[in-house]
């Protein structure tokens, strides 16, 4: 749902959960909206507006193009859509319950699309029973929203769970500020910029100084053409760049975006299009590693030259210890 809202060029997206999504998952966007006809067909299987020409397959820049998400969701929930394109006075209210059309009628609504998914798996008790604990389901959603928010600083995200605001992330702030809003100010103080441009590749983002590391790898984010991905090669490039700088089992925080010609990547090796393969794995990996090493070398030199403590070493405890010594 989030991907669809982003594909529809939304500038404001609100995600509302009740009971970690079990009772309600709602995504409100102010994007392009749909006509009545498009709204109706969007919930049918293999409905997609993203392929008008077979050449599009090569250069497809949007998220999904299987045209199955809405149909699948509507088949296992009480599904409601309110949608209105900018140039139309009235919108459409569509209700589907477990694939059965209940309603399709004109309605006054805001521009954009609001999709409400109620009682997920209400018609498949076995699946409903086997949903993960609320804490786990909630963590998955936080992860999803976090990745979207890191990839799209041009979008204002609001995330509300059981009436509590989890995130309220204004748009067009610099990435470090958004990182701080999500992960806290300590990490922000340790961020080092990465920037490298070659004819085929643009690598940019932020990584943490080697002294700011975690015991888990969960704070490593990779984006290719603004799409969150996993890539063994990119993870390897990070591990390799930090190799002699951090202990084994310690992981730096990484927020790395790669811009590359879409025909140079294959996003379909993974069923959920998460794991990406590059046409030229080796040179991409090498280029990313070099960019990271440059950043780390510059940071080491800068702190050696000024003789200053690395910012992450100025912990309150250290200052207090120094003052009382
Ligand atoms: P896909 O995204 O793979 O095309 P989906 O089932 O996710 O398939 O969506 C089907 C179609 O419905 C999309 O191609 C798009 O045209 C339309 N659509 C879905 N969500 C939105 C939205 N939030 N705003 C505008 N159009 C949407
Ligand atoms: Mg989609």
What radius of gyration results from the CA coordinates? 22 Å
Q: What is the count of helical runs?
A: 11
Hey, roughly how much beta strand do the residues contain? 25-35%
Number of strands: 17
Note the gap between the termini.
Answer: 57 Å
Helix % is: 25-40%
Q: Shape, please? A: elongated
Poorly predicted ranges (pLDDT <50, ≥5 residues)?
57-61, 309-325
- The run of helices and strands is HEEHHHEEEEHHEEHHEEEEEHEEEEHH
What's the overall average pLDDT, rounded?
Answer: 87
* Secondary-structure-derived class: alpha+beta
Describe the model.
The protein is α+β, with helices and mostly antiparallel strands. Helix content is about 35%, strand content about 30%. The chain is built from 11 helices and 17 strands. It has helices spanning about 1-5, 35-40, 55-60, 70-75, 125-130, 135-150, 175-185, 185-190, 230-240, 280-305, 315-325; strands at about 10-20, 25-30, 80-85, 90-95, 100-105, 110-120, 155-160, 165-170, 190-195, 200-210, 215, 220-225, 225-230, 250, 255-260, 265, 275-280. The strands form 4 sheets. It has an 8-stranded mixed sheet with strand order 5-4-3-6-2-1-7-8. A hairpin with a 2-residue loop joins strand 4 and strand 5 (about 100-105). Helix 9 (about 230-240) runs parallel beside helix 10 (about 280-305). The longest helix has 26 residues, at about 280-305. The protein is elongated and about 70 Å long. The protein starts with a helix and ends with a helix. The relative contact order is 0.11. Mean pLDDT is about 85; it is low at about 55-60 and about 310-325. The structure holds adenosine-5'-diphosphate and magnesium ion (MG).
């Amino acid at each position: 749902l989030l991907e669809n809202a982003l594909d529809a060029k939304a500038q404001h997206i609100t995600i509302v959960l009740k009971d970690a999504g079990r009772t309600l998952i709602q995504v409100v966007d102010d994007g392009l909206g749909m006509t009545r006809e498009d709204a109706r067909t969007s919930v049918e299987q293999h409905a997609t507006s993203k392929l008008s020409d077979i050449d599009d397959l090569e250069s497809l820049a949007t998220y999904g193009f299987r045209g199955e998400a809405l149909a699948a969701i509507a088949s296992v929930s009480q599904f409601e859509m309110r949608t209105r394109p900018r140039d139309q006075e009235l919108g459409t209210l569509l209700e589907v319950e477990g694939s059965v059309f209940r309603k399709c009628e004109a309605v006054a609504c805001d521009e954009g699309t609001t999709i409400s998914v109620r009682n997920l798996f209400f018609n498949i008790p076995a699946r409903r029973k086997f949903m993960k604990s609320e804490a786990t389901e909630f963590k998955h959603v936080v992860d999803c929203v976090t990745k979207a928010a890191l990839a799209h600083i041009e979008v204002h995200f609001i995330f509300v769970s059981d009436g509590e605001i989890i995130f309220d992330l204004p748009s067009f702030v610099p990435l470090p500020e958004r990182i701080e809003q999500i992960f806290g100010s300590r990490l922000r103080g340790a961020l080092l910029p990465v920037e490298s441009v070659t004819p085929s590749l643009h690598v940019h983002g932020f990584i943490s100084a080697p002294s700011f590391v975690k015991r888990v790898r969960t704070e490593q984010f990779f984006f290719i053409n603004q799409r969150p991905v996993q890539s063994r090669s990119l993870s390897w490039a990070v591990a390799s760049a930090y190799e002699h700088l951090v202990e084994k089992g310690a992981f730096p925080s990484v927020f790395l975006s790669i811009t590359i010609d879409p025909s140079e990547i294959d996003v379909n090796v993974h069923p959920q299009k998460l794991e990406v393969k590059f046409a030229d794995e080796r040179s991409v990996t090498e280029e990313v590693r070099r960019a990271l090493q440059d950043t780390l070398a510059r940071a080491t030199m800068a702190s050696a030259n000024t003789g200053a403590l690395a910012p992450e070493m100025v912990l309150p405890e250290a200052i207090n210890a120094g003052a009382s010594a």
